[in-house]
Design goal:
single chain, about 425 residues, alpha/beta, Rossmann fold, 2 domains, 6-stranded parallel beta sheet, 14 strands
Length: about 425
């Protein structure tokens, strides 16, 4: 496959668009297909419909190499490698919804044997084997994505590893995928398909487990007077543990961790194995969000009629993604306790509007804090560190702040007149380092 050979991408959501734009940046011609005409038209004009750092610039810079279409025949005529990047959201049972993947498989029935289907969508182990039986003439490669929202372009261009799963009969197809990724310099991991599928699920489940573990430690720290920031730092210096994902807060969210943890739990359950650890990981994550309500009640008593400002609505900074965002749980729980809720986010206001219809959405952090009885920092946006907190204290009815990400300097807040409480933090604690 030559350096300038065309690459096909099926589905131009977050993963698909990053994949298409980054391959174009590497010099490949890319044809990307989606079934939503409005999305295709917007992308053809160079308009990105969601927030991801650096992505709009890639589209502008590589417009001549990128073609967007709604037509599968156009994609099949143009590209040999077909990267499938469609959503696999959780069903009501917790299993992965593979309906979009199956729709792609149906579209590919009868396609040329020269095509290679490369699965980037997160699917349960065993999916590849099923697809290979359904498409016997097509080579199949599993190549799971390991991108983080907010740093997806950087993650793609500088991967820790690239996992390529292919059976012996499809070794040549695996080699083609490896050739595409080799210039990026990440370690290339060649394995069978089922193992590649499990690597993705196991990786995210382990990271989610680290988050729930450090949150449990934070809760114990509050009881014994220890500081979770100091504890996490001391733990992370052990090379067997490492510092990443040891940052206490109000739990994980987004499109990957909740879905993949649930999917792995259900995958195990469907085989008859009870994955008890993941049950606890999920339970801890849900309870952690609700602990914030208890902290507010400790200071305010009843929340009936109290105004609470949520600073940050997206599930993490540097994205506008509201999927499984902690703000959704907090808003609903606070309103259930009778509180009035106002929220602010630098980029996620519009995505949040339909999901938080009974929440007032402010145009700035200061506006959100005006007259509030308490504030909860939900998302660690950099701009929140730059707020004039003395002014904010003067604007609030009661200057109380619950720092759900241990992001702010406690002493700075206290000097500004705030009653400050973080997650598992002792008096005199320092701000936690940015997440890795």
């Amino acid at each position: 496959m030559s350096e300038k050979a065309p690459v096909g991408v099926v589905g131009v959501g977050w993963v698909g668009l990053v994949t298409a734009a980054c391959f174009a940046e590497l010099g490949h011609r890319v044809v990307a297909r989606d079934i939503v005409p409005e999305k295709v038209e917007a992308l053809s004009r160079g308009e990105v419909t969601f927030h991801e750092a650096g992505l709009a610039e890639l589209l502008q810079r590589n417009g001549e190499r990128l073609t967007f279409t709604t037509e599968m025949p156009e994609l099949l005529d143009s590209a040999r490698l077909l990267f499938v990047c469609v959503d696999t959201p959780p069903t009501y049972s917790g299993d992965a919804d593979l309906s979009r993947v199956r729709a792609v498989v149906d579209d590919l029935r009868g396609s040329k044997s020269e095509h290679v289907l490369v699965m980037k969508s997160t699917v349960p182990a065993g999916t590849g084997a099923t697809i290979r039986r359904d498409l016997p003439g097509l080579a199949y490669v599993s190549c799971p994505e390991f991108l983080k929202e907010g740093t997806a372009v950087k993650d793609f261009m500088h991967p820790d590893r690239v996992v390529i799963g292919a059976e012996p009969s499809d070794t040549a197809a695996g080699d083609l995928v490896e050739d595409l990724y080799r210039p990026l310099g990440g370690e290339l991991v060649r394995t069978d398909i089922a193992s590649a599928e499990m690597i993705k699920l196991a990786s995210n489940a382990f990271l989610a487990t680290k988050i729930s573990f450090i949150n449990e430690i934070a809760n114990v720290c509050e009881e014994v007077g220890a500081d979770v920031g100091e504890v996490a730092q001391g733990m992370g210096l052990d090379k067997r543990i490492g510092p990443a994902f040891l940052r206490a807060g109000i739990g994980y969210g987004g499109s990957c961790f909740p879905k993949d943890v649930s999917s792995l739990k259900m995958l195990a359950g469907n085989t008859g194995y009870h994955f008890q650890l993941l049950n606890s990981v999920i339970e801890v994550n849900e309870l952690q969000k609700r602990r914030v309500v208890g902290k507010l009640q400790k200071h305010l008593g009843s929340l009936v009629g109290k105004k609470v400002a949520l600073l940050g609505l997206a599930f993490k900074a540097d994205t506008d993604d509201m999927r499984e965002a902690s703000s959704l749980v907090l808003a609903a729980r606070l309103q259930g306790e009778g509180a009035e809720v106002v929220g602010y986010d630098p980029v996620a206001t519009e995505p949040a509007r339909d999901l938080l219809q009974s929440v007032e959405l402010a145009e700035s952090a200061i506006d959100a804090l005006e007259g509030a009885d308490a504030a909860v920092l939900v998302t660690e946006w950099d701009e929140f560190a730059e707020i004039d907190w003395a002014e904010a204290a003067g604007r609030m009815a009661n200057p109380l702040l619950i720092d759900g990400r241990n992001f702010l300097e406690p002493e700075k807040l206290r000097e500004a007149g705030f009653t400050y409480e973080g997650i598992g933090r002792a008096a005199g604690a320092r701000a936690s380092p940015p997440p890795r």
